[in-house]
Specification:
This protein is α+β, with helices and mostly antiparallel strands and 171 residues long. The protein is 19% helix and 31% strand. A seven-stranded antiparallel sheet has the order 1-2-3-7-6-5-4, with helices on one face. The protein starts with 14 loop residues before the first helix and ends in a 5-residue tail after the last strand. Residues 1-6 have low confidence and may be disordered.
């Protein structure tokens, strides 16, 4: 995951603290307006280096322990168009599978909070070593992607990507 061209957003957080902030922001999302760069930055406390001319096109990165990095970015946005989604990702440079123990946050961290907040949970079949859990309510869709903690097929799963999208506000 090479992301040195993006602004650093916060290198002092642990993986748990970072996931806590992402989850708190997700729980505050009511509709697509809450996906804006300004709102994501405000709710997470993470500096995204927003450009006032294109505040819904953003990508910020930061460092975690043991060479791990994370990014928080808008997805498929064109100036003047509605923000489509926000992606949180934890990764490490290289193509081989890397033990996630230093940054592992389990699914239960997200599942329990989202289900308690009224999200309905469902699974998607495993694909290419990744497990998926979907959480949705009337307006918000969250896809949590998981990898095995120490190997791709480890039964203990770690969150490595969280994709969030939301419906347009209702009139």
């Amino acid at each position: 995951m090479t992301e040195s061209a993006s602004p650093a957003i916060n290198d002092s957080l642990s993986a748990q603290q970072l996931n806590d902030r992402i989850l708190a922001w997700i729980l505050s999302v009511n509709d697509a307006r809450d996906l804006s760069g300004w709102k994501v930055e405000k709710r997470t406390g993470l500096h995204l280096g927003l450009d006032p001319e294109t505040p819904n096109i953003f990508r910020g990165v930061g460092a975690l322990s043991d060479g791990w990095r994370y990014s928080l970015s808008s997805v498929n946005n064109t100036p003047g168009h509605r923000l489509r989604a926000v992606l949180f990702k934890i990764g490490r440079a290289g193509d081989d599978y890397v033990d996630m123990t230093p940054v592992c946050v389990g699914l239960e961290h997200y599942r329990s909070a989202l289900v308690s907040a009224g999200f309905k949970a469902s699974d998607i079949p495993r694909r290419a070593g990744t497990e998926y859990r979907i959480f949705r309510n009337r307006m918000v869709y969250v896809r949590v992607e998981l990898h095995g903690k120490t190997t791709p097929i480890d039964e203990q799963l770690c969150v490595y990507r969280v994709f969030v999208t939301a419906a347009a506000p209702q009139a």
